[in-house]
Specification:
Helix content: 55-70%
Structural class: mainly alpha
Shape: globular
Distance between the termini: 21 Å
Order of helices and strands: HHHHHHHH
Radius of gyration: 18 Å
Number of domains: 1
C-alpha cells in the first residue's frame, strides 16, 4: 500500500503528468458523449438486417450476462491496472477515447440492423447508454480487449489475458448474434490501426508505459 501511495504521489506531483492525465479524462468524457449521440443516430436510422455466413450456422445462445456483467468486469480490471500503475493512465485513457471516437464515426456510416434472432439483452443495464444494440460496426467487445493487449504487450501475462478476453468476447457476441462476423473480425485490424495512431499522436504518454 505504501508503494502504491508513493507511485501516485510521484505521478500527481508532476505538473506535466497531472495535466496529461486530466486531459485524458476530459477526452474520454468527450468521446463518451459523442458515442452516446452516435448511438441515438444509429438507432433512428437502422435499416434491414443482412445474412451472415457464420451466424447462419451458429445457434443463438443467451450471452446477456457475458455481454454486460462480463464486459463490466473487464473494465474494472483495466481500472485496477491503472490504479496500480498511474503512469499508464494518460496513454490508456487517450487510446480508449480515440478508439471510441473512431468507432462512433464508423457507427454513423453503417446502419445495418441487428440480426432478428439474437440473444435477449436486458434494456435496464448500466451499459444501456453506451450501447444501443444498433451500434454494430465494429465490435467494441472485441476491439477494446485487443487494444489493451497491444498497450500491455510487453507484459506477457496481461498480453495473454487480454488476447483471450478479445477472443472470448468476440466469440460470445457471435454466439448471441449480437454482432455480424465482419464486426468482430474487422475489429482486430481497425484496433491495430487505432493503436498505431495513438502511438504517434500521444508519443510522450506512450513512453510512460515502460
Amino acid at each position: 500500500m505504501r508503494q502504491l501511495f508513493e507511485k501516485h504521489f510521484s505521478f500527481w506531483s508532476q505538473r506535466s503528468l497531472r495535466v496529461s492525465a486530466v486531459l485524458s479524462f476530459l477526452l474520454l468524457l468527450l468521446s463518451l458523449v459523442i458515442n452516446y449521440l452516435a448511438n441515438l443516430y444509429t438507432s433512428l436510422h437502422a435499416s434491414n438486417y443482412v445474412s451472415d455466413l457464420i451466424l447462419d450456422h451458429l445457434p443463438v445462445i443467451n450471452v446477456d450476462f457475458i455481454f454486460f456483467e462480463g464486459f463490466s468486469l473487464f473494465l474494472v480490471f483495466v481500472a485496477g491496472l491503472l490504479i496500480r500503475e498511474p503512469r499508464k493512465i494518460p496513454f490508456v485513457l487517450k487510446s480508449i477515447a480515440l478508439f471510441i471516437l473512431i468507432r462512433s464515426a464508423f457507427m454513423i456510416l453503417t446502419h445495418v440492423a441487428i440480426p432478428p434472432n439474437h440473444s435477449y439483452v436486458d434494456p435496464n443495464r448500466l451499459l444501456e447508454d453506451i450501447t444501443s444494440g444498433s451500434d454494430l460496426f465494429f465490435s467494441s467487445h472485441t476491439g477494446l480487449p485487443y487494444l489493451m493487449a497491444l498497450i500491455f504487450w510487453n507484459n506477457k501475462f496481461l498480453r495473454i489475458i487480454f488476447l483471450l478476453a478479445a477472443a472470448f468476447f468476440g466469440f460470445s457476441v457471435l454466439l448471441g448474434h449480437l454482432h455480424y462476423s465482419i464486426d468482430v473480425f474487422s475489429a482486430f485490424f481497425i484496433t491495430y490501426s487505432i493503436f498505431k495512431i495513438a502511438q504517434r499522436f500521444f508519443s510522450k504518454d506512450y513512453q510512460l508505459l515502460d
